[in-house]
Amino acid sequence: MGAWQQGQMLELTIDNLSNRGDGVGRWEDRVVFVADTAPGDRVRSRLTRLKTTHGFGKLLKVLAPSALRVRPACIVADKCGGCQWQHVAYGAQLAAKRQQIIDALRRVGELTDLPESLVAPVLADRPLAYRNKVTYPLARASDGTVKAGYYRKGSHQLINLNQCPVQDERLNPLLANLKRDIQRRGWSIYQETQHRGKLRHLSFRIGHHTGQILLTLVSTEPLDDLESQAQEWLAAYPEMVGVCLNLNPAKTNAIFGPQTRCVAGQPYLEESFAGLRFQIRSTTFFQVNTVQAERLVQLMLTELNLQGTETVVDVYCGVGTLTLPLAQRVARCIGIESQPEAVAQAKQNAVLNGLQNTNFYVGKAETPLAELLAGGIRPDIVMLDPPRKGCDPAVLEALLQLKPGRIAYMSCNPATLARDLKHLCGAGGYRLTKVQPADFFPQTAHVECVAFLIA
């Protein structure tokens, strides 16, 4: 085994892409992760961080570019930390995401005999202009002007943007103008290191189908003359239906604080989703890729082959994104969610759509599940859509007590999905029948998927 030291220069061929977004190469018997590379690249890199069996390198030069390397759509793609893969051909991105899921199921889930055919090709749509929500941190430039954008890779240094190729293109005209108005108002900009100043973030939401825009300013405290400025924005941008202020005075990396009020217009936008009407507020969780979410919901409805007689429980239901489309096709749909605000919105969205066969419960998922069991309710299908950390063990145990005939598990993290499937398919006795990936986040290493299981 050769020398292995920090600062060492290596020439590598990149073989594939990691689930962190880095290119993966090998030097002797060690793995080296190099950001900003594409499969097939021959590169020179410098080792920056070492472990016993692997290391991390900084790209110094592409010696021979891969056929899978493309020109990024964004002029700051080499600096901005928002995307990792704008330099990688889209087909190669999709292949890497599918492989990421297969590897997680085999390694973490210990489904060693998993046939690759069980993981379907990745559902894909538009690789750019897909985001219906963007949130920009703010800063002051050295000349005193207001900056907004994303952080430079591996830092909190802001890369100033006036547009972004992955956000809905209808949002692009707004950012430069709003920065100018903020400058004119003289509002102080939050300084993270000193924990001083007021205005922290600008957050935009847009209804993909309706075109309605909701603007939210995040500040440590109220802003002078905000009501006047909000009215100016509503007059200048007819598609903007509301301006909100979220107060976040805490010294934290969390974007939103606990309080949001509507300053002008309405506190929500309306969106059409899967043929239903939804009201979506500033801090509501809603999938950022509307088209892909609709496609995945439609696939789930087809795969589940609903007969109209089923009782369905939707765990981690949010504002009813899955619950309500399912409720149109089944006898009864029960949603469970820990956030009271989300449940209130789910109930409102059910009323908006005239759905009377839904019930929603607030609480940590395992508690309402246990109450359903105690009440004699045996769901035919349970839907799961947990956060990135996956399901708590107590949720999985409660689920095994309920023992539904079918489970559909939607996940944004293949590793925690695989961990939970190991439990469900092991002690739980379930059988995995299909995994459908969907590319909700093109140009990044993130992948969404839904796994279907039967008892």
Q: Strand order across the biggest sheet? A: 8-7-6-9-10-11-12
- Rg on CA atoms, Å: 24 Å
Note the main sheet. 7 strands, mixed
Give a count of the beta strands, DSSP E runs of length 2 or more: 21
Helical content, roughly?
A: 10-25%
Q: Please report which band the strand proportion falls in: under 5%, 5-15%, 15-25%, 25-35%, 35-45% or over 45%.
A: 25-35%
Overall mean confidence score, pLDDT:
95
Discrete helix count: 9
Descriptive report:
The protein has 455 residues and is an alpha/beta fold. Helix content is 24%, strand content 31%. It has 9 helices and 21 strands. The chain has helices at 90-107, 172-185, 226-236, 290-304, 323-327, 340-352, 366-374, 393-402, 414-425, and strands at 9-17, 23-27, 30-34, 42-50, 54-64, 133-140, 146-151, 158-160, 199-206, 213-219, 240-247, 259-265, 268-273, 276-281, 311-315, 332-337, 358-362, 381-384, 406-411, 431-438, 448-454. The strands form 4 sheets. It has a 7-stranded mixed beta sheet. Helix 7 (366-374) packs parallel to helix 8 (393-402). The chain is globular, with a radius of gyration of 24 Å. The model has no long low-confidence stretch (mean pLDDT 95).
